[in-house]
Amino acid sequence: MSAAASSLEGRVAIVTGGAAGLGKAISEGLARRGARVVIADRDTAGAERLQHSIGASGGKALALGVDVLDAGALQRMVDRAVDHFGPVDCLVNNAGMLGPVRSLLETTDADVDRVLGLNIRAVFACTRVVASHMMKRRCGSIVTIASVAGKDGPKDLSIYAASKAAVIGFTKSWAKELVEHGIRVNCVSPALIEATGMQGEMPDWFTRDSVARIPMGRVARAEEVANVIAFLLSDDASFVTGACYDVSGGRASY
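Request: output the structure for the sequence above.
Response:
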């Protein structure tokens, strides 16, 4: 791995949804900085491929098949991480979904339950398990993926926007609750990111509109978002907690 960045040297980091798309870029970026990365993903085979790729580059990674909607699986994830690498220092809540792009009147209760279940409830469950572990050592850093959609509420994307507004809100609450235990909690709010599964779920008109509202005139690269996450997890951000960092090309700055 590159020796240029080592601010996470020896840290143990769990990345949910860490096998593909943005999660893959996060896992690779943390490994390049010396972290021992737990790639937690429902796609066990994809996680294993990434584990081998990181290992071949000189990094350390552990692939785990994990459904973040299963509370028991989350505890087993932490136990396996500790057994393999030692105490967990960092958590990236990356697993999530876009859900349907449709109007309020077309939205069903099942749609709401599905998106909020993964984007909110599962993040609560995962953070609760990992934070309980971190509290015993009085140190840790947690970053959750929000979205500019949680700030500006795009048309026909109300469930996803609501879920990401919730991420911003609970990040601020958890930061205040956990600071006395030595744990920092932050989130990032990207604009549209290239080459991710989420982009593939969007109708063409929605993608074009999303790009049109980015002042830089392009989508984000996954590694650009991953770089900000690595900063927030590191000691370089030791006085940063309760923050929502935009990675939006200027689309949102509040």
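The chain is about 45% helix and 15% strand.
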